[in-house]
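Input sequence (351 aa), recorded before submission:
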Amino acid sequence: MHNYPGIIERYRKFLPVDDNTPVISLNEGSTPLIKSVYLSDRYDCELYYKFEGLNPTGSFKDRGMTLAISKAKEEGAKAVMCASTGNTSASAAAYARRGDMRCIVVIPDGKIALGKLAQAMMHGAEVLAISGNFDDALDVVKHITSNYEIALVNSINPFRIEGQKTGAFEICDWLGDAPDLLYIPVGNAGNITSYWKGFKEYRKKNISKSLPKMMGWQAEGSAPIVRGMIIEKPETIATAIRIGNPARWKEAELAANDSGGKIDMVSDEEIIKAYKILALNEGIFCEPASAACVAGLIKSAKEDPKKIKSKQIVCILTGHGLKDPDTAIANSPEIIRVNKDYEQIKKVLNL
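Predicted structure, token format:
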């Protein structure tokens, strides 16, 4: 019988845990690095997709959450709380339930994909919908967790960053070294911060020899880092990165600058185009926010093909497409309704 442990057991020596830490895990991590069959050929590069949508709750958040919940449990917390645009709430609720803890989620009302909200509710989370955006929700969470014995498990929790850095470890383990370029969506900016930390730690330990250029991508209507200003009312179809004041803003800029990369933005139209390319040409169904980094790759190739030609590149696909079924349905052909009439079916299918 094969045993595939979660990231705490796999990377214990790199994480702030000891024998007293109760490991709350759903065997997260070990997500595949899928080689591109379409864009690699189109742009003459060696492209891979790190499909984080195959984590237990369908997003990369599980990497940080297993550690955040385990440490909260170790410290005696009976309840956890987070603000969320979706994926964090689903992950926090699942791991809290696994650890027999109460979970409270604050979401921006009407600004969350139903697939994600359904997960949190099924796991028994107490969901509060606030009139405002993600940043308003996070303000509420900061206030409550500062005044009551409830653990905050958003990405400002340092243990989230520690868990999420394991994605970089897995890429190096798979490829034998860090890639030349890492393309990654940027919302609250915890993930780009985490990956950069992971790559640096692996090189420091001489497990890998090189560091990638970190290429972060925001949505145009929600691009505070690119614009250099807080966006009071961020808007984008990519709900997971609809954040106007990222908690890890400075760290994200540092990761991009130190690595020789950059943080840029793409339009919703470019995101949906990449979202469809992944589904129709690569066979990968990710959520719209994930496609932002692929849209960024396509934009880079248009601006200067030489920058990606012959390069080894990894795109981080942060969440599964089933997280946001409404967007998928809205961007697909209509269902063809027919009778049980073989002639009609033959005609419809051009047989």
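Checked by second reader. The domain at 7-59+159-330 is CATH 3.40.50.1100 (Rossmann fold).
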